[in-house]
Amino acid sequence: MNRDDITTGPAGDPAADGRLVGSFADGEDQAVEAALRPKSLDEFVGQERVREQLDLVLTAARARGATADHVLLSGAPGLGKTTLSMIIATEMQAPIRITSGPAIQHAGDLAAILSSLQEGEVLFLDEIHRMSRPAEEMLYMAMEDFRVDVIVGKGPGATAIPLDLPPFTLVGATTRAGLLPPPLRDRFGFTAHMEFYAPAELERVVHRSAQLLDVEIDTEGAAEIAGRSRGTPRIANRLLRRVRDYAQVKADGRITRAVASAALRVYEVDTRGLDRLDRAVLHALLKLFGGGPVGLSTLAVAVGEERETVEEVAEPFLVREGLLARTPRGRIATPAAWAHLGLVPPQQAPPGAGGGGQRGLFGP
């Protein structure tokens, strides 16, 4: 089996961390999600603006009998970038090749993949911002001129042999669009940013997935799951499967609001979608450090996690929910954080009363 025939996922990310509300998918999740993925733009829920724009791009390409332009999809994990890449291939009636940036460490890796592509094939490159620089520079020419130069030999005797490629469509996906160099970003004919889903859209996702999983669920049960899914379809599907397990074992198999609430209480996912790690970070910030400011390293030690875990796994959602803020002096809790945990903020010291020195101990 060739390296380019392997479907790879984002390596080195905080994936498969065992969190029920984590945005990354492990092997089991990927298998289930593959069965739940929509197969066409009409079936795809949410991302109305992106779907409309992408439909125009693909329809026009089919009408011209041409290969679709290269597509760049950016956004948080779990919003449907991989699904859209598969839909693009389906809409263009083309095969798809799936790989990831971390898997391409040398220009030769990319050359092997590109040279084996068929005409019109879709190449999905996940986490494209993590591709090595030599491979990235080779990709410039491949995207623009459908050609790569293969270097034969070493040193002064090395020779560049041009290799023509059949027209193909590159679909790049990234969770950090700002890390893409402008020369690469500018070579995409269509770029789209995936937004977090509204609760109503996630309810539609839950109902559709429940139907595919042959699970009976009412409107209130779907709304309860959607409201705790952090705006992410992948999380909504994961919570649905865990609630289904609870309903089969503890109830009559039907998911209602009461069943969903009881199940998610067992799995420690609260009404706003916070899990154990999220609440541990907030609890330490509020109870141990009086709401901050406190440095990230100190906060990580307080919850028994690595600095990177707190910064990359817990913080983004807490900031987006308005429960935590990043400041030059450190992390601080917002009034909403105190209210969510049912705690009363300490009285603010009057100006000139001192106390600022202790706060400075927890700088960033």
Would you mind describing this structure in some detail?
The protein folds into 3 domains: 191 residues, Rossmann fold (3-Layer(aba) Sandwich); 68 residues, Helicase, Ruva Protein, domain 3 (Orthogonal Bundle), CATH 1.10.8; 70 residues, Arc Repressor Mutant, subunit A (Orthogonal Bundle). Helix 7 packs across helix 8, helix 7 packs across helix 9 and helix 12 crosses helix 13. It has 364 residues and is of the alpha/beta class. The longest helix is centred in the middle third of the chain and has 18 residues. The strands form 3 sheets. Strands 2-3-6-1-7 form a 5-stranded parallel beta sheet, with helices on one face. It starts with 26 loop residues before the first helix and ends in a 5-residue tail after the last helix. It is 44% helix and 12% strand.
Task: Provide a concise account of the structure shown.
With 364 residues, the protein is α/β, with parallel strands linked by helices.
- Counting DSSP H or I runs of 4 or more residues, the number of helices is 15
Computed structural class: alpha/beta
Major sheet attributes: 5 strands, parallel
Distance between the termini: 48 Å
CATH architecture term of the largest domain? 3-Layer(aba) Sandwich
Strand content: 5-15%
Order of helices and strands: HHEHEHEHEEEHEHHHHHHHEEHH
Q: Unreliable runs, pLDDT <50, ≥5 residues?
A: 1-16, 349-364
Mean pLDDT figure? 84
EC number: 3.6.4.-
Subcellular location: Cytoplasm
Catalytic activity: ATP + H2O = ADP + phosphate + H(+)
Family: Belongs to the RuvB family.
